[in-house]
Amino acid sequence: MVTALSSTLDLRHRGDRRAALEARILAALQQLPERPEAEREAAALLLTLVTDEADDGQVLPYPEHFRRFLEGGIACGALDPRLREFDLAQLARALDPARDRLLGYSALVTLADRYLVRDPETRQILERPQALFMRVAMGLALAEPPETRTAWALRWYDLLSSLRYLPSTPTLFNAGTPHHQLASCYLADVEDSLESILGSASEFGMLAKYAGGIGAAVSRIRAVGAPVRGINGTSGGLIPFLHLYDALIASISQGGRRRGTMCVYLEPWHLEVEAFLDLRRNAGDPYRRTHQLNTALWIPDEFLRRVETDEYWYLFDPVIAPELPDLYGQEFTRRYRDLCAQAEAGLLPRRAWRRLPARELWLAILASLMETGHPWITFKDAGNLRSQLRGVGTIHSSNLCTEIFLPTNREEVAVCNLGSVNLARHCTPDGQLDWDKLAETVRLAVRALDNVIDLNLYPSERAARANQRNRPVGLGLMGFAELLARRGLSYADPRAAELADRIAEFLSYHAILTSTQLAEERGAFPNFARSRWADGVLPIDTLEELARERGFPVDVDRSSTLDWESLRERVRQGMRNGAVMAIAPTATIALIAGTTPSLDPYYANVFSRQTLSGKFLEVNPVLVEELQRRELWERLLPDLIAARGDLRAVPDCPPDLVERFPTAYQIPPEASIEVAARVQKWVDMGVSRNLYHAADRPGQLSAVYLTAWWKGLKSTYYCFVRPRMEVEQSTVAVNKARRRPQWVQLAEQEVLAQAGAACGLDSSCESCQ
């Protein structure tokens, strides 16, 4: 009886303490953004809240917490029992509590909401942030020989906990747990048969269940009205099957931690391309809409050439053009023109083709993009002609976030695992990079990514086969805009593109070098002899190949600074990985790392960012530092908020700051394309490039996308068009579908009330992030 009474009193005390902490967090958030330091105060209080839950109301030293966490986590089935095999005492001593202070409030909310390991039954948080980083490091080290696992775990813990590098969300979720699905992206090619369409649905469901983002090529599926042999009937076409996939993906929430996510890719010669453009519209037949699926066009050069020359574009039923998905470059052009000639000569069934002005279709694509944000524009020929795996097979689509370019076929589903270097953690306060530390980070990151291939739980045999044969990894970056801000450079300054060029060259050089070293240690990937690597071809070499195939120059600078010829000789001897770099969006891991996502500019200097964990006010921290240094922060703050972060509308703002800190919509889209093109020349896969445009007519977008094509980009991602992205009022309810603690919802309201009508940015897509 005494024990029970004591337990009851303890629970009541813990409840009172939690309520007091939550009240203090709200009080701190109410002072944002007048006192930027209040964000750190809220973070410290939230960390105490997390610690209380993880340690059952105690405040244990990290080594003791770590011991209890491992014992309890393994006992309840939340952790991999193999974690016992490390030198746990040595790992526990390495945990650095001071590194918790590197995590901001929004980072901690995100970690607590979905990343920290919980008891499967009670849903109680079991791990604190440093335990998370050590758990992930240990999970990655399981691929190393037993005698070196502890040493590698220590290296990776130091890398992750210092926020110099973070792997993508699936690895942060699952490394070190019994559920080792660590890969980010899956790419599949759907065949034109009911068996393939339905079999793919089953496979997509399993991939989504296990936290994989899916990119699916659907250009082979016959059009509506096509004959169906054996039943003496006709096909219902592509759209009903996409509606099926949409319902499937919408039903999978991955345990509430992430939404099921998928993007379908269609080539624009498909007879149902115009119906495809309507899939994301709000109006119309709901059975011909797909509100969960993302859509993208896989555009061949021939289409854009016809747009430029104002020619007709021909649409075909895949039944009469089954070879087009497998062709690219001049081979595609020859076959496509042959089909056009056959159509005009009356040699093809009239129901199976039609024509329209290429510019008419192009403007319809851009109009849909302005209205719905879809379809994303990706470039088939650049994706294939610049692939290091051209000898292995044809690339039929990109992934969910448009940065992965890997071949697929009926036997293989391509897989890629991602992680990103945080540039902001490799620079001084004035933006000078520590190149030696950056090289070390790349070496550790690429080895960790290579380990994921052997550790991964594959929901599909086709995925396991492809990943083992090609062993692709996708190293990316984040924090570029923060680096520019610390250097005092505007994103539109030509020196920004030069800096992006040099950084991408450096990352690419050391990623490739590390892969050659891993090949010497572990062996080359099985398909190495069929790859361009075996011929000594490097990513930058493919620019000239693309230009020759197109018949016009690729408009991008060709300069380099490193010793690529020596590296070329090493590459010929073997590469561990069929691909090594991809620039993913990184919105969520950049939030955790406390920096700007990927290559993106600051969206605004004050704005609200919506994620699956809530809505957060973000203020450009470098601007805050600069205004405080000049003793202008308190005086300019009200006008800055009223102007939604636009310094041009802030009276008395120094002109040099107006130039240095533009919003995303004030940066010419051509500058964003130039930065991406400089990076793409070194990246063997792709660059996920968000675009920001203050447009009111579809034709205004045309030049931007044509410029991306001319400069050799393989893809673009979201197009944020200002009229469509106008302010969301702070009273709008967010994330109604997910139940979060009431104090978190109240905190959102407090933050946004303080910000007034802040510009909003939704970054809830997290498969590559």
Outline the secondary-structure elements.
Elements: H1 2-30, H2 38-54, H3 62-75, H4 88-94, H5 105-115, H6 129-141, H7 149-161, E1 165-167, H8 169-174, E2 185-189, H9 194-209, E3 213-217, E4 227-228, E5 233-234, H10 238-250, E6 262-266, H11 273-277, E7 294-299, H12 301-309, E8 312-316, H13 329-344, E9 353-357, H14 358-372, E10 376-379, H15 380-385, E11 414-422, H16 435-455, H17 461-470, E12 473-478, H18 480-487, H19 494-522, H20 542-550, H21 564-573, H22 587-593, E13 606-611, E14 614-619, H23 621-629, H24 633-642, H25 655-660, H26 669-680, E15 691-693, H27 699-710, E16 719-721, H28 742-755, E17 759-762
- CATH topology group of the domain at 185-385: Anaerobic Ribonucleotide-triphosphate Reductase Large Chain
Helix content, binned percent: 40-55%
What is the residue-mean pLDDT, rounded to a whole number? Answer: 90
Shape: globular
Please, how many helices? Answer: 28
Runs with pLDDT <50, length 5+? 1-9, 725-739, 750-759
Q: CATH class of the domain at 185-385, please?
A: Alpha Beta
Number of strands: 17
Strand content: 5-15%
Q: Distance N terminus to C terminus?
A: 51 Å
What is the radius of gyration?
26 Å
CATH architecture verdict of the domain at 185-385:
Alpha-Beta Barrel
Find the structural class using helix and strand composition: alpha/beta
Q: Report the biggest beta sheet as strand number plus sense, adding barrel if it closes.
A: 8 strands, mixed
